Amino acid sequence: MAYIDVMTRTYVNRSAVMLCPKQPMLDWLNNLPGLMSDLTLEDIRKDSTIYLLPEHAFDGDVLKLVNDNWEKYFSMQLTAWWIGEKEWPANRTLAMFHEWFDIEVVSELFDMADGPIEKKKDETEWVKELRKYALVAREKTRTAFDNGMKRWRKFRAKG
Q1: How do the pLDDT tens digits run along the chain, 159 residues long?
Q2: Which residue, of 31, 69, 101, 138, has the greatest Cβ tally within 10 A?
Q3: Environment class of residue 31 by beta-carbon count within 10 Å: exposed (0-12), middle (13-18) or buried (19+)?
Q4: Residues in CB range of 12: below 8 A, 6 or more apart
Q5: Residue 14: in which H helix or E strand, if any?
Q6: pTM of the full structure
Q7: How many CB atoms sit inside 10 A of residue 3's CB?
Q8: What is the distance between the alpha carbons of residues 11 and 101, in angstroms, rounded to a whole number?
């Protein structure tokens, strides 16, 4: 194994948390209309989300920050799978958040890649854009359905 000189790599002044879905998240996903129902826990844990947070010396500080903002993280996790908030679980709580996700804290981050880190568009903007397109698609689908029903009614009336 080649020795990597850590001093030649850039230390990133952030802490991180990785939210790993648990069984209740899988159960919810498998009950959504039109979503693949053969997902496994292994499937959804393979691509867990990592959030960079302000640098903290102790894991407890990071966990407090996550607990103080659990609603935001819960919403982001749900949005990543399903943007229709009507299908989201109602009455979400901090306890439910902990039932649905394992929280893994990473206290030291090093940038091992060459080149600058690029920040992408804020996810809330991305989600707004995605919702806009989803609403347009739903409206087009509704219009196509309504037109199909009108044609079917005419056909039935003639028959």
Answers
A1: 455 555 567 888 899 999 999 999 999 998 888 766 678 899 889 888 999 998 887 888 999 999 999 999 999 999 888 878 889 999 999 999 999 999 999 988 888 888 888 777 665 666 666 666 665 665 666 566 556 656 656 655 665
A2: 101
A3: exposed
A4: 52, 109, 110, 111
A5: strand 14-21
A6: 0.69
A7: 5
A8: 28
